[in-house]
Amino acid sequence: GELVEPDLESVVERRVHDFINYCQGIMHLNQRYDVWMRVSKDTAAKMDSFEPFGKAVMMLFKTELPFIEKMQVTFYTDKDEVEKQMETAKEIFKARDARTKDLHDEDVEVFYGCTLCQSFAPTNVCVVSPDRISLCGAINWFDGRAAAKVDPEGPQFEIAKGDLLDAVTGEYAGVNDIAKKLSSGEFDKIKLHSFFDSPHTSCGCFEVVGFYIPEVDGIGWVDREYQGMAPNGIGFSTMAGQTGGGKQIVGFLGIGVNYFYSPKFIQADGGWNRVVWLPSKLKEKIDEAIPADLKDKIATENDASDIESLKAFLQEKNHPVVATWAAAEEEEEEEEEEEEVAVAAAPMMMP
């Protein structure tokens, strides 16, 4: 169509998730290279080919997005061809994400919101800012702007930032207002760059989930591709189930992969200095985002498979979190001494 432009590519791409789920018996989750799809047995029994499925999706696209005049749907089922197309797509994703590299939260007047995942997570409030990509990883700030422009009544929309309440945690009055409205009062605060205090809600389509490890006072991250267990003995699926649903769960946080590259990455809680564990493939994937002085100090499944081995690794590498352990021990000792003094000073009860 005449109105189709490159900036709309991600808008169309993300609506695939929305429209496919309109089709009975077919489930679509996630985006980009992390898509999960399931077809029910009843639906599969009625389908001789994917043609009816493709026609239904095209009809929905052309009905909901009038700027699309003609389109084609192609299904790739050959593994080699799928992998070939995947590599091409990854280059496009990389170029798209690079656009926000030099744009930051303080440089813009509005953020963007997305409600596509509210069918799965009714209280989720996805806020997209220059320094924080959507949880699914498919919508950056420019994508949100393009989507809101072409479809003002659609699932992506402007969020007036309002007053900056806390630059470190990334708390804005306008974001708090929209959080309260879209979560039906469930939440009244969302701090964009905080892990513990009023963190961003987590939908279920997030690419990575972060988890706090109290034994080492550090944070680990695990992505969908990792099939093993994290040092806390829990796998991605279980943690995703605990974290998702549009909730704020203290100690867990869903994010998009590109958020690792943000200069404001969980800055309220130590940023990269708090990261202690990553799956090896994810660590390799985001290598450029990890500060050089921390690369060999962050463990993978090859270095630590449980809490004890993780603790030993962090001590050996002198990870920044190790310094907090001594302070915590001193604080505990002081508290114990104060309790002993209080007990000694208490009057004796006579029989």
Automatic annotation (TrEMBL):
Compositional bias ranges of the Acidic residues kind: 328-341
GO molecular function: anaerobic carbon-monoxide dehydrogenase activity; CO-methylating acetyl-CoA synthase activity; iron-sulfur cluster binding; metal ion binding
Entry cofactors: [Ni-Fe-S] cluster
Pfam name, any one: ACS_CODH_B_C
InterPro entries, A to Z: ACS_CODH_B_C, CO_DH/Ac-CoA_synth_bsu, CO_DH/Ac-CoA_synth_bsu_3_sf, Prismane-like_sf
GO process annotations (BP): acetyl-CoA metabolic process; methanogenesis, from acetate
Biased composition, class Low complexity, residue ranges: 342-351
Gene3D superfamilies found in the cross-reference section: Bifunctional carbon monoxide dehydrogenase/acetyl-coa synthase(codh/acs), Chain M, domain 3, Bifunctional carbon monoxide dehydrogenase/acetyl-coa synthase(codh/acs), Chain M, domain 5, Carbon monoxide dehydrogenase alpha subunit. Chain D, domain 4
Domain CO dehydrogenase/acetyl-CoA synthase complex beta subunit C-terminal: start-end pairs: 93-322
Name of the top EC class for this enzyme: transferase
Pathway involvement of the protein, from the record: One-carbon metabolism; methanogenesis from acetate
SUPFAM superfamilies given in the database record: Prismane protein-like
Disordered: annotated segments: 328-351
EC number(s) given by UniProt: 2.3.1.169
UniProt entry keywords in alphabetical sequence: Acyltransferase, Iron, Iron-sulfur, Metal-binding, Methanogenesis, Nickel, Transferase
Entry keyword Iron: yes
Assembly and interaction partners: Monomer. The ACDS complex is made up of alpha, epsilon, beta, gamma and delta chains with a probable stoichiometry of (alpha(2)epsilon(2))(4)-beta(8)-(gamma(1)delta(1))(8).
NCBIfam families in the cross-refs: cdhC, PRK04456.1
Family: Belongs to the CdhC family.
Protein name: CO-methylating acetyl-CoA synthase
Species per Swiss-Prot/TrEMBL record: Methanosarcina mazei
